[in-house]
């Protein structure tokens, strides 16, 4: 609200700055600690307020938006419980290098340090989880802080920023000049770096590129494909970045993640040059830091990364290049092709091994997950967006689904349960004409199941495939491996998920046989409603690699 003298309250200034920086929507759960910001939405219809049911879901939706667009996803939560609920989404953004801004309503400044109602010192709370944390204590500095937040969230290695907004700063009035839109600062590849890279690539007999991380976009994928084809390079994707290289491309050799194909692990061991392009090769991607020797891999190592702090942090590279993935790929896609050794047979073998590893096979029970995911991959269009959270069910998705284009996988590298449903809603709100499917375990879905109401309210007609085996599968797997037959705390009593969908006004169907899945999927696609397909899966089919009994009996 602006009066004749040009005065605005702090909430309006916040919303005006978000508009200037290109914010399309804000995900939030309303709270009394940011009433002035809520009031600011009234006069700015350009920004869509997406009302969520729990702050954790709102933060995940914002993080998913950041993954999809490369622009900061914005989330607003109330103080205390709201801020703590949102912390999982911030942690996901930090580990996934996703640009995100979390705004938190805070107690008024004159109440600080009295342990006022729901008071938390967010600088201390969020310091290890975010790229930058601050509190705006002067209304005149709102434009400055938000400008800096956008620059920090998107520059170098992207990540989350947290800003606390005291209530009295929001409700105060001031005449303040707006800031200009933020400028994305990108670490760019230098000519000397590209020349050194080309020289090392030319000397290698079996080079292998592993891609991952943010920033990334469709042009980066196009340039990756061009670079790989022109230079005869094998390409693998890092854990949960499987959409960066089309999986059916002949130069693609698989994903470096949990349950890695042993053939791909051998291929990495055989390589004489490893190129980590935007990848960190952390615990999950490196099989517990065992895939490469630390700190000096036996293979020559080139590490390209947008944040200089990561270079040499775990692995000592022979060539370290501080550059963003899009910048570096644009440069190497245009460089003169190398005159290296002919390793086409090695690459062809790697791609053939990937295809063989992705062939579905039977598992115990009438619903066989490998075949279900294979059908999903065959039926959905190339631009369909697939989301998931954490659990053994996800291993079936990663292994048997072929990602064919960039921007089609939304999943947390941090292994955060409950991610899939909110992420799917965010994707569908942003891309209403694209098909969006969430694959979730029964335990994973229940983490943020209330957001199904958000999907119905906003017409986000997603399809959620729930893998219901009545147990927390990953924990049960570890439990049976370490303490066989001593089951504790991993059995679930679940609702009727199909009925759950209908209770909210969505479409629900239950599948008890593999051969019925394709028909259920088609009916869900035609329902024009948010939908749930519940798969009744035998708990004996505990993982891709082994049954429950095999794990229990060693």
Main CATH class of the largest domain: Alpha Beta
Provide mean pLDDT, rounded. Answer: 95
End-to-end span in angstroms? Answer: 67 Å
Main sheet: strands, sense, barrel: 6 strands, parallel
- Give me the side-by-side strand order of the main sheet: 3-2-4-5-7-6
Oligomer: single chain
Helix content: 25-40%
> Shape, please?
globular
Class from secondary-structure proportions: alpha/beta
Number of domains: 3
Strand element count: 20
Under the CATH scheme, which architecture of the largest domain would be assigned?
Answer: 3-Layer(aba) Sandwich
Q: How many helices?
A: 22
Uncertain regions: pLDDT < 50 for 5+ in a row?
Answer: none
The CATH topology assignment of the largest domain is Rossmann fold
Gyration radius from CA atoms, angstroms: 24 Å
CATH superfamily of the largest domain: Thiamin diphosphate (ThDP)-binding fold, Pyr/PP domains
**What share of the residues does DSSP label as strand, in percent?**
15-25%
Reconstruct the topology from this structure:
Blueprint: E1 8-9, H1 10-20, E2 25-28, H2 35-41, E3 48-51, H3 55-69, E4 73-77, H4 81-85, H5 87-96, E5 100-106, H6 122-126, E6 132-135, H7 142-154, E7 160-166, H8 167-171, E8 173-174, H9 191-203, E9 207-211, H10 218-231, E10 234-238, E11 252-256, H11 262-270, E12 273-277, E13 300-305, E14 319-322, H12 325-334, H13 344-357, H14 369-379, E15 385-388, H15 393-400, E16 409-410, H16 420-430, E17 436-441, H17 442-447, H18 452-457, E18 463-468, H19 473-482, H20 497-503, E19 507-511, H21 517-526, E20 531-536, H22 548-552
Parallel strand pairs: 2-3, 2-4, 4-5, 5-7, 6-7, 9-10, 9-12, 10-11, 12-13, 13-14, 15-16, 15-17, 17-18, 18-20, 19-20
Antiparallel strand pairs: 1-8
Helix pairs in contact: 1-2, 1-7, 3-5, 3-16, 10-12, 14-15
């Amino acid at each position: 609200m602006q009066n004749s003298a040009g005065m605005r309250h702090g909430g309006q200034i916040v919303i005006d700055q978000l508009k200037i920086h290109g914010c399309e929507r804000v995900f939030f759960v309303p709270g009394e600690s940011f009433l002035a910001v809520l009031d600011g939405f009234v006069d700015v219809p350009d920004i869509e307020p997406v009302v969520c049911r729990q702050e954790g879901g709102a933060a995940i939706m914002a993080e998913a938006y950041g993954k999809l667009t490369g622009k900061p996803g914005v989330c607003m939560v109330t103080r205390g419980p709201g801020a703590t609920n949102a912390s999982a989404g911030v942690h996901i953004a930090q580990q996934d290098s996703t640009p995100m801004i979390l705004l938190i309503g805070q107690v008024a400044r004159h109440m600080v340090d009295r342990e006022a109602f729901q008071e938390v010192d967010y600088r201390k709370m969020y310091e290890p989880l975010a790229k930058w944390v601050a509190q705006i204590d002067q209304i005149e500095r709102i434009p400055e802080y938000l400008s800096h937040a956008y620059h920090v969230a998107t520059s170098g290695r992207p990540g989350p920023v947290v800003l606390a907004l005291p209530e009295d700063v929001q409700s105060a009035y001031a005449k303040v000049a707006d800031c200009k839109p933020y400028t994305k600062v990108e670490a760019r590849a230098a000519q000397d770096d590209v020349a050194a890279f080309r020289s090392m690539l030319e000397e290698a007999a079996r080079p292998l590129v592993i891609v991952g991380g943010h920033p990334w976009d469709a042009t980066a994928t196009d340039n990756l494909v061009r670079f790989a084809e022109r230079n005869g390079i094998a390409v693998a994707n890092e854990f949960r970045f499987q959409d960066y290289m089309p999986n059916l491309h002949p130069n693609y050799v698989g994903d470096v993640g949990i349950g890695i194909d042993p053939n791909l692990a051998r291929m990495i061991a055989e390589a004489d040059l490893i190129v980590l392009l935007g990848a960190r090769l952390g615990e999950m991607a490196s099989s517990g830091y065992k895939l490469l020797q630390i700190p000096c891999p036996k293979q020559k190592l080139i590490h390209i990364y947008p944040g200089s702090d990561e270079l040499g942090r775990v692995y000592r590279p022979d060539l370290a290049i501080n550059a963003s993935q899009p910048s570096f790929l644009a440069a190497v896609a245009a460089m003169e092709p190398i005159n290296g050794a002919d390793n086409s047979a090695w690459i062809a073998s790697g791609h053939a091994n990937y295809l063989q590893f992705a062939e579905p096979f039977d598992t115990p029970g009438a619903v066989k997950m490998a075949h279900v995911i294979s059908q999903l991959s065959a039926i959905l269009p190339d631009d369909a967006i697939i989301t998931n959270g954490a659990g053994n069910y996800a291993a079936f998705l990663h292994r048997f689904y072929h990602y064919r284009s960039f921007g089609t996988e939304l999943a947390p590298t941090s292994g955060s349960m409950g991610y899939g449903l909110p992420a799917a809603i965010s994707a569908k709100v942003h891309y209403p004409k694209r098909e969006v499917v969430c694959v979730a375990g029964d335990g994973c879905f229940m983490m943020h199941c209330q957001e199904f109401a958000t999907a119905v309210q906003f017409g986000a007609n997603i399809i959620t495939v729930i893998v219901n085996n009545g147990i927390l599968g990953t924990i049960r797997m570890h439990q049976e491996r370490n303490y066989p037959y001593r089951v504790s705390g991993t059995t679930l009593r679940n609702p009727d998920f199909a009925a759950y969908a209908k209770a909210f006004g969505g479409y629900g169907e239950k599948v008890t046989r593999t051969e019925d899945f394709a028909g259920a999927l088609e009916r869900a696609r035609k329902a024009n409603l948010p939908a749930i397909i519940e798969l009744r899966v035998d708990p004996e089919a505990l993982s891709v690699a082994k049954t429950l009994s095999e794990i229990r009996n060693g």
